[in-house]
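WARN no homologs supplied; continuing
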Amino acid sequence: MRGRQKTRVVTGLHIVGKRSAKGCIWYVYAWRGGPCIHKAFGERPVVDMALIMRAEKARSPSKGTLETLDDVLDRYRQSPEFVKLAESTKRDYRLWLDRISEKFGPAPIAAFEDQRMRTEIIDWRNTWADQPRTADKASVTMATVLGWAQGEGILPVNIATGIRQLHHVNKADQIWEDRHWDAMKSSKDKNGRSLYSDHLDRALRLASLTGLRLGDLVRVTWEDVGDKAIILTTRKRKGRAIIPILPDLRALLDSIGAGTGPILRNSRGEPWTESGLGSVFQKAKPTGFDRTMHDLRGTYATWLAMRGLTDEEIARTIGWTAKRISEIRSRYVDEARVIVSMVERLSA
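OK structure emitted
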């Protein structure tokens, strides 16, 4: 069996099988997306009256005493904080909540008041040390759950808060320069055919002129476009983004041609999906390409700075701190102006 096995719903229960280092492990949920009410190794669990009673109890949770971390995880899955998350975020969280349950689920809640358990969490996180992003997701999810428990008065402290992350990126050093655009446009497959399509070009240019994350980029519609700005609610922070339509952005929108629905469409004329656009970008990247689509947000910040906006104005537009904008400005904008000025003086 590879990954998740086929799932089946019986009497409202949702049963999922997964591979683990100990063999096949089965998770029984009270309902699809509901709390985990049972775990078993080996054979698929038989649905009996005991499981049905546990499911019924989960559907009508009491405020009784919580004894184990599994109890906390079940309560968190039913919390307003979890329910309001985007579906894609919930899917990711459920994976990590299951992994936390597999490792720490039976442990008594009191154990998570002891700072020595912090070492256990770090050791567990380090099992993914060769995948820093994954490792950080482990500790961040644990800190999220324990932080929620602290906020609910279940725990007096959050022993997982502040665990150092393994993955570090200097965003101030990552913007798209001319050489990156040239490399993308020159990308070809093994048969010499261009991998850089007009549809991908429009998407990347729109990203560089709006600073939108990939999830918002594929969602922005013509109905969001006004005379002076693009206004939409962002998916990640649920905030209101107001993107000024400067001449370069207006020219791009005019070249695409106004319509209805999503602005960006693929070669079949259908709206891009987040995974679809991301996949096409990955396939089109030339060997050794050292930029991501997310780096186009820094490119947008630099573009605004070159046009005279202040750090505070850019920060409000893109949703970053003024300090972060200042770092990008000093690296790319001010440095470029110094060089241009120097060349002009020496050439006089």
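Residues 322-347 form the longest helix (26 residues).
OK
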